[in-house]
């Protein structure tokens, strides 16, 4: 059932067994998993099916660290959450790249003093496989050998540290729309749109949440009373809600991570014939109908050696200098035949004529530094709630590891071509992949929640989504978000 909270009267109170805050990937999957069970569920979403200016304005916030696009520009509200910002296109539909975390991303590492998950990749394997199906992807396989076909073969690596793997690409429509439809039909789930959580209210012991204040622009305030509450509103909002509730965890809001993107590396092949033999690294449809694109990655040995960022390199054609000047001078005239940084370049004849190499777009992990954090601003939003304040910085130790990564990539590809470094010294932070701030850890001293996502200091308050990540690896977080939501749904169902 779907309800519009703007139609509620002042003083409305809804009672439920489970209240989920946020209908992004985590909240949608969690609510869908509870359909048909012997529990009543309310799913609160600040927005609705389509973007609305008044709602998007609630994403405002302060940024006091390095130059950042802003909290309003990097987040979305509405059904699907920030998946509404997916900007890759597959079959004319918004899509994103999917990949699981590497095994090493779950491990405590000497060069990651604040890293380490409370469980390993093996424990999440079954949930990853189910997440594949929910996200309408192909088989749970990301090795190059599984996807090599015909003339689409990966490059031979020159050494042991660099390997070819794939991203799978999934459509937002194939993922979000079916979940939304199933929830809207469910007898035991009430999806309330235009419903923004304002405050959590604990009981006298301070250990249980008994109710939550809810509001919307132009609507009357109302209340949800719930036996269990799940915050699934993203890394920034989850932290903000807990800060507003007075949670005193030493790690609350800390360890905020992005996936910075580095465009500084260019590969100039020793022979231009390599351009015509590189379709493995372009977007293509595999034999089973899945959409995949090849990528370069560090192998486990390189990552285990320490002091290097986990990363993934996607290849795009690099224009010859003369062609770059022509595009700058005559952008509208030459756009139709000059390739750009988008997929499909291997199927354009103009690529071979206009390009002399590749740009390597590196998607990077970031160290979960405690001083990269979300706090509360002195400013308030349109509903009277203190805005979040983000202090995000690209740290010197991250930059040092990036330089080592660049050196490894250059050495590994030296038999294929020449690597040059000619871009920004520091990467672009704006991937819209917010993670950390309510990190999992079995020890309350080192984390905000336990391995099941339950807030250590509360008996009935849980967190879902990428804010749980102790480390974020290199990959778009959606597949891991969905896997963790499946894991939490099982825990909630068992406790019902």
Question: Can you describe this structure in just a few lines?
Answer:
Helix content is 23%, strand content 25%. With 496 residues, the protein is of the alpha/beta class.
Provide a descriptive summary of the structure in words:
With 496 residues, the protein is an alpha/beta fold. It has a single domain (2-495), classed as FAD/NAD(P)-binding domain (3-Layer(bba) Sandwich), CATH 3.50.50. Helices cover 23% and strands 25% of the residues. The strands form three sheets. Strands 5, 6, 7, 12, 13, 14, 15, 16 and 19 form a nine-stranded antiparallel sheet that branches. Strands 1, 2, 3, 8, 9, 10, 11 and 20 form an eight-stranded mixed sheet that branches. Helix 1 (25-33) crosses helix 4, helix 1 (25-33) runs parallel beside helix 12 (478-495) and helix 3 (121-134) crosses helix 12. The longest helix has 18 residues, at 478-495.
């Amino acid at each position: 059932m779907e309800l519009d909270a703007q139609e509620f009267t002042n003083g409305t109170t809804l009672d439920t067994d489970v209240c989920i805050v946020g209908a992004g990937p985590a909240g949608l999957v969690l609510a869908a998993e509870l359909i048909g069970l012997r529990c009543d569920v309310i799913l609160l979403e600040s927005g609705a099916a389509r973007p609305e200016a008044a709602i998007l304005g609630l994403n405002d916030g302060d940024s006091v660290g390095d130059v950042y696009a802003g909290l309003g520009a990097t987040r979305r509200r509405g059904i699907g959450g920030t998946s509404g910002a997916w900007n890759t296109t597959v079959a004319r539909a918004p899509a994103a790249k999917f990949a699981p975390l590497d095994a090493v991303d779950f491990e405590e590492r000497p060069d990651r003093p604040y890293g380490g998950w409370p469980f390993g990749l093996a424990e999440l394997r079954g949930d990853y496989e189910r997440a594949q199906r929910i996200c309408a992807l192909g088989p749970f396989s990301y090795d190059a050998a599984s996807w090599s076909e015909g003339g689409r073969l990966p490059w031979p690596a020159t050494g042991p540290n660099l390997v070819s793997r794939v991203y799978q690409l999934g459509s937002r429509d194939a993922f979000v729309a079916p979940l939304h439809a199933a929830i809207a039909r469910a007898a035991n789930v009430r999806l309330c749109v235009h419903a923004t959580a304002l405050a959590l209210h604990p009981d006298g012991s301070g250990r249980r949440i008994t109710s939550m204040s809810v509001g919307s622009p132009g609507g009357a305030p109302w209340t949800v009373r719930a036996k269990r509450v799940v915050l699934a509103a993203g890394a920034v909002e989850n932290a903000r809600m807990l800060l507003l509730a007075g949670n005193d965890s030493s790690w609350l809001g800390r360890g905020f991570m992005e996936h910075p993107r580095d465009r500084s590396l260019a590969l100039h092949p020793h022979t231009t014939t390599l351009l015509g033999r590189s379709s493995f690294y372009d977007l293509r449809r595999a034999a089973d109908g899945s959409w995949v694109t090849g990528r370069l990655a560090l192998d486990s040995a390189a990552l285990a050696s320490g002091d290097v960022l986990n990363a993934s390199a996607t290849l795009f054609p690099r224009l010859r200098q003369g062609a770059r000047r022509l595009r700058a001078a005559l952008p509208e005239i030459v756009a139709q035949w000059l390739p750009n940084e988008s997929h499909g370049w291997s199927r354009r004849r103009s690529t071979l004529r206009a390009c002399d190499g590749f740009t390597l777009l590196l998607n990077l992990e970031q160290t979960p530094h405690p001083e990269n954090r979300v706090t509360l601003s002195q400013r308030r939003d349109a509903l009277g709630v203190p805005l979040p304040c983000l202090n995000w910085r690209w740290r010197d130790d991250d930059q040092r590891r990036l330089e080592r990564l660049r050196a490894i990539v250059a050495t590994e590809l030296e038999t294929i071509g020449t690597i040059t470094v000619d871009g920004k010294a520091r990467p672009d932070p704006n991937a819209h992949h917010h993670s950390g701030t309510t990190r999992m850890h079995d020890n309350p001293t080192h984390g905000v929640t336990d391995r099941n996502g339950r807030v250590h200091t509360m008996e009935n308050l849980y967190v879902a989504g990428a804010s749980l990540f102790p480390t974020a690896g290199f990959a778009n977080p959606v597949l891991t978000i969905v896997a963790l939501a499946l894991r939490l749904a099982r825990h909630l169902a068992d406790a019902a």
